[in-house]
Structure prediction request, 260 residues.
Amino acid sequence: MKPFLITVAAATVLVAAGDTHADSQFKLLVLAMPGKYHYEYIPIARDSLERLAKLHSFEVTYTNKPGVFDGDLAQYGAVMFLNTPGEELNPAQRAKFEAYMRGGGNAVVVHRAAITPPNGWVWYEKLVGRSVGPHPMLQTGVVTVVDKGFPAAFGLPDRWIWSDEFYVTTNPYDVKINTVLGVDESSYDPTRIWPGQSVQPMGKDHPIAWYHHVEKGRVFVTTLGHNGEMYRDPQYLGHLVGGIYWAAIGKGQVGGAVRQ
Prediction:
């Protein structure tokens, strides 16, 4: 091979190596365990999150085994509970996660992960920021953007047609949250719930995605994300990655007081 061609080939290898080993901005730990009503989303969500990680230069550790919480959590910029509530962790793993948050760790809570038995792990209930009440039927409604300056709302229209289980929540521990998305109860029937339950609509103040700070860390919660096809939807994925981005690095928020 001529010297010039050798030089070009070597340069090509170096560029390719640089692309392959590009520095990641942070690591995201995703706990996604199959449940009775949530399992089909797992391979779809994994594929989508791994593609988002490549696009936005972060790493994903995706697992269905809570034993990962026995290891070093400090390496992760954020921990995501994806349709998997904290009750899946044993007492030692719960203590490790609490220590992680006290040390400046961050959390993302998605859909079913917001539901946990009352008084089962009060610290986790406070981390979520709201307690989920009666379980609603999946319906099509109008999601409203409350905080346009938060990354999980970027790219969403002011009024967004979406189909999901719009959880009704309460605030038993008086936790202050910052609402990102709400839902217009006039756009669906909030009394349609699973048999054997009763519900009172929440009215105009019905948050379905929010953020706040717990210990020394950031927490983003979205109650959207019920079924697998949602994890293929570009707008939903934009909503999700916006929350991950803010939780992991604390940047991107427009206006308001930002604590990093």
Notes: The chain has one domain: 25-249. The chain has five helices and eleven strands. The two ends are 54 Å apart (CA to CA). Residues 3-20 form the longest helix (18 residues).
